[in-house]
Write a structure and sequence with these properties.
Order of helices and strands: HEHHEEEEEEHHEEEHHEE
Pfam families: POTRA_1 (PF08478)
CATH architecture of the largest domain: 3-Layer(aba) Sandwich
Shape: elongated
Subcellular location: Membrane
Radius of gyration: 35 Å
Mean pLDDT: 86
Protein name: Polypeptide-transport-associated domain protein FtsQ-type
Keywords: Cell cycle, Cell division, Cell membrane, Membrane, Transmembrane, Transmembrane helix
GO biological process, one term: cell division
Number of helices: 7
Strand order of the largest sheet: 7-8-9-10-11-12
């Protein structure tokens, strides 16, 4: 028995439909591959998206040329190949740098944003003055004494508790007091002493003043006690005020 003509044609149409779908799939895959290849060429192989400029912001202590040299960013490098973490790590090794952020700014700029360390005190060693930041890290050094309070400690540095205590005390002080601060002594973390220049804590105060501060903390309370004592006759004539124990304040 012969098969009806209509069914025979329908049977022949099934493979043809599958072939068309297969070819569409192949064309779609080839198109995606071509797009990806073109994108990879633009990102990695062409001269369209490469490093052309390096911008630096936030620097005052570090010369720009020195920072760029340390960053070692190669002009002409494809932007996508730039290792921003490695660049930041190299810049962070500069002693003047506290933190850094490296960003790609498309199509061809690398931006280095630096936060520099802020010197707070100076330490004298063998005729040179080393400026320390809040973490007791050396920022810069010079043969001339800078316009900073001079810190005296047995082993000044980031691992020394006495140094860190003195720096913490310094950051607790009001700006008006810091401006008159000549030096700090920190034989131990609990025995920080401040030496103020002429003028003390107020414009009418006469002569230098030594404040035995003690350990960090309770800054507001200690400041109120010092200011209150300086308003008395005994306080105005005193050369040393001891607020290391706020419960027992002495002046001499």
């Amino acid at each position: 028995m012969t098969q009806p003509r209509g069914k025979e044609q329908a049977g022949r149409g099934v493979p043809a439909g599958r072939d068309r779908r297969r070819w569409r799939l192949v064309c779609a895959v080839l198109l995606v591959a071509a797009v990806l290849a073109a994108a990879a060429w633009v990102l990695l192989g062409s001269r369209l998206l490469v490093v052309r400029h390096v911008e630096v912001s936030g620097t005052h202590l570090v010369p720009r040329d020195r920072l760029v040299h340390v960053a070692r960013i190669r002009l002409g490098l494809p932007m996508v190949r730039l290792d921003t973490g490695a660049v930041a790590g190299r810049v962070r090794r500069l002693r003047e740098v506290e933190s850094v952020r490296v960003k790609r700014v498309w199509p061809g700029t690398v931006r280095i944003e630096v936060r520099e360390r802020v010197p707070l005190v100076a330490v004298e060693r063998a005729g040179r003055y080393y400026q320390l930041d809040r973490f007791a890290m050396v920022v810069v050094d010079s043969a001339q004494r800078p316009a900073l309070p001079l810190l005296t400690a047995a082993s000044p540095g980031p691992e020394d508790p006495a140094t860190l205590a003195a720096l913490q005390v310094l950051q607790e002080l009001p700006e008006s007091m810091v401006r008159r601060l000549v030096s700090l002594e920190a034989p131990s973390p609990q025995a920080v002493t401040l030496r103020l220049g002429g003028g003390g804590l107020g414009e009418d105060d006469a002569g230098p003043l030594t404040v035995v501060w003690g350990a960090p903390g309770r800054a507001a309370e200690k400041l109120r006690l010092v200011e209150a004592l300086r308003r008395t006759s005994a306080g105005r004539s005193a050369h040393t005020i001891d607020v290391s124990s706020p419960e027992v304040v002495t002046a001499r």
